[in-house]
Prior knowledge:
The protein is of the alpha/beta class and 296 residues long.
Amino acid sequence: MKITAYDIVAKFYDKVIGRHDDLQDYTLKKIKQYNKKAGSLLELGCGTGENLKNLQSKFEITGIDISDKMLKIAKKKIPGGKFYRGDIRSFKLRKKFDVIICLYDTVNHLTLFSELKKLFANVKEHLNESGIFIFDINTIYKLNNLSEISPLVYKFDKNFLIVEVRKLSLNIFNWTLKIFEYKINNNYKLHEVNIKEAVYDLSRIETELKKTFVLLNVETEDHKKINNSTERVFFVCKRRETLDAYTLDARRETSNVKRQTSNVKCQTSNVKCQTSNVKLYLRSGREVIREMIRNS
């Protein structure tokens, strides 16, 4: 099976990325706000399961990721969870969920807008009626800034991480991650990966989402409106409810009744018009008779 970039950095991931309790808090608030009775949750691009670990007490947990080594770590953290290796654009599970989340700019990894369309369609197919979809993206402002101040150097334990973000085109950026893993006697082993991210016009994303979802929020993680200096944008969507056959039949019947009522009103109006014409005709006849009497 093909080794991914995240397979190479999997064992360092949690220490490099760290915990993001603020994102988990945001997610929980939105679930409580829009789907209080939610019992099942799927994370796309779940990585090492750090998000799911803190959600497992509240939901039946499922995770999907492209990296085997990331999933192996996730399974150890959450023995009761279900994890699958798969592509977020094309995975197929025999189950639907109350909530689907996709955090930490996973969506930015899709470098063609057609891939976003596939993702949104696939999410819709795996959501229960009224299920909600929460995801975030890095903005052009953030990635432009990172490309201008790169490289960035971080130390964790005795290891070093060097991050360099380079702009390749108008909307494509390349992240180069170099991890120098400490060995004995001040020797280091280099682990290097390149990861591409794309940014898209927010209005274009919103337009596409509205074809399938009810768009509930487009905001920052502290629930503020986005602006030109926003670094991360959160989208909260709700699946549009589909009408069952009974409801459709009822609506068709109601529509037919309205049309029939409208026809009756038109017919009644025509009768009134005809009655009015008769009255005018009778009135005209009387006036003719009166005129004849006067002249006789």
